[in-house]
Amino acid sequence: MKTNQISKLLFAIWALLGSPLFFGLYDQCMYTYWYPLTRGNFAHVILPEILWYIAFGFCLFSGCFALQKLLHNKFSARIIISAVYLLVMTSLILFLAYKIAFANGDSL
Are 34 and 18 in contact (CB under 8 A)? Predict the structure, then answer.
């Protein structure tokens, strides 16, 4: 494979799979549940809440950037595709955070 094809494949994998998987691992392991609960604390206590929002934004916009690197359409088409991607991925990531919370007994 050429380097260009490999980079396009990696951008596509990150935009579709890597972004939500990274956020899920971060939310489950580091920020919310595993790390604080193994140290005897409640979830959302050890690390500041702004880190959750930073990880959320990083996952959304890095996936959108990866999608932009794949597209060679007109500017207006790229904007529309990016907006749809952001809406769908925001819904997916928030649903993932919801499922992780319920799986760990945090059902407020």
Answer: no
- Its sign, for the CA torsion 96, 99, 103, 105, is positive
pTM above 0.85, yes or no: no
8-state DSSP, 17: I
Cβ proximity of 23 and 93 under 8 Å: yes
In angstroms, the Cα distances linking 53 to 8, 36, 48 are: 28, 17, 10
- What average pLDDT does the structure give for the chain? 83
**Separation CA 28–CA 17 (nearest Å):** 16
Residue type, 99: K
